Amino acid sequence: MRYKVTIAYDGTNFAGFQRQPNQRTVESELTKVVNKMAKHPEPAIEVYGSGRTDAGVHALGQVVHFDMPFNLPPDNMRKGLNSMLPMDMEVLAVAQVDETFHARYSVSGKRYLYRMDLGEFRNPFKRNYTGHWKFPVDVDRINEAAKDLIGEHDFTSFVASGSGARTNFRTIYEAGCHLDEANNELVFEFYGNGFLYNQVRIMVGVLVEIGAGTRPVDGIQQLYKLNDRRYARRTVPASGLYLKHVYYEGDDPAHPTKLPKHQR
Amino acid sequence: MRYKVTIAYDGTNFAGFQRQPNQRTVESELTKVVNKMAKHPEPAIEVYGSGRTDAGVHALGQVVHFDMPFNLPPDNMRKGLNSMLPMDMEVLAVAQVDETFHARYSVSGKRYLYRMDLGEFRNPFKRNYTGHWKFPVDVDRINEAAKDLIGEHDFTSFVASGSGARTNFRTIYEAGCHLDEANNELVFEFYGNGFLYNQVRIMVGVLVEIGAGTRPVDGIQQLYKLNDRRYARRTVPASGLYLKHVYYEGDDPAHPTKLPKHQR
């Protein structure tokens, strides 16, 4: 019986999503709990995520799947997992899915948030939950520039080395930011069919520089032409990044299909 | 030269305010930095706080004082301290004061906040920053009951053992709560001339039970009559508590004077 599980986690105390020896990761905590619930079967049950998140990156709606040797009502599964998982993880939803569903290979899109604190001083309560930008920014200018991210583009200028992707072409459906006045934060939001390694953090770095006026408003277009990561410079900190939602084939009628195989 | 320093800290990774052997505390981090700035004088410089906060309790405006062997403009002192303090502490303000000022003995009042998350499920991002209450509460009923806290009372029913105070009489000037709808939290606020050990956390425990209807609306009056800590039962978690402001003699014209000596 295959379960699709949506989880939130505070990435602060994780060495990222992916299992690594002698490190506390999201995948290893989940794998431990799932195998304990199933009374340690041989071979052990594997947990598959929609993709990795780096150390310090948070999730409001990461998705994983795994196969259990028993049939449990989804809400019981949710409660059971939550009773065993550490306090910095929380299962939000559980669904039973058929064997064609794969948390990674069935992804049709992802939505990320980036929270950038605009306070003059660093805020000890936000250090793990936001990036920090203390120069004046023009939100309209950022949103004007962000339009150039929409559509299918070669994001070679926006990918960190070590990405391992077969191609740097990706399609972005939504990109922009708004000012959260109550929290004095700039909140960026991106929705696309997939994102390259560090792509969101590099895009935010370029956009805040455009907003501050240290890059021209057509800075995104320039980077497409240069096609070289070195010109994007700034990668904003992991602490402000949130994986907000993972879309699967058919979830979003406007963008129903997954990333072509050669792009994954 | 005496400096009055206002600091914020995220209490999550501190074993409280007060220095303790082999523990990371707010006082020990400050003492370390202050003595380093002064090039390790003998005897070492002492840092005096307005009072202790427990492990996990946060501060939006804790106050300390210390004497430095040199005269530095307050803003340079602020920047210097911040450049050396860890990221979960932040100096908000520095003032030079005369030698009659004492961070603890000159206190005329304190203001505390308590943030109570009302989400149905635990929220991994709030576990260190709020308490959690998942039953329906009536905010008006809480505020009706909280009026009984105002004034001078014997708070024996609201003090944890080990308080060490000479008397349990304290005066509360303001007490109440409001619903923070954006964050789905109940935010309690208390202002008084001083608070006993765990008093705020015990008062919040009583007030949420009144709000949930498991205690009568005159539950505070009942506790005054019983005059016994065992009837208050619940002490809500340290994670939701914030020392918001420390008032000194003359800071608040409505309540200018400090706690009488026999009550400290």
Automatic annotation (TrEMBL), chains A, B:
Residues noted as binding substrate in the record, renumbered to the chain: Y112
Domain Pseudouridine synthase I TruA alpha/beta, residue spans: 7-106, 145-249
GO function terms (MF aspect): RNA binding; tRNA pseudouridine(38-40) synthase activity
Catalytic activity entry: uridine(38/39/40) in tRNA = pseudouridine(38/39/40) in tRNA
EC number: 5.4.99.12
UniProt KW keywords: Isomerase, tRNA processing
Highest taxon in the source lineage: Bacteria
Keyword Transmembrane: no
Active site residues per record: D54 (nucleophile)
Gene Ontology terms describing biological process: tRNA pseudouridine synthesis
Entries under NCBIfam families matching the protein: hisT_truA (TIGR00071)
Subunit structure: Homodimer.
Similarity comment: Belongs to the tRNA pseudouridine synthase TruA family.
HAMAP family reported for this sequence: TruA
Primary role: Formation of pseudouridine at positions 38, 39 and 40 in the anticodon stem and loop of transfer RNAs.
Protein name as catalogued: tRNA pseudouridine synthase A
Natural source organism: Secundilactobacillus similis DSM 23365 = JCM 2765
Lineage start: Bacteria, Bacillati, Bacillota, Bacilli, Lactobacillales
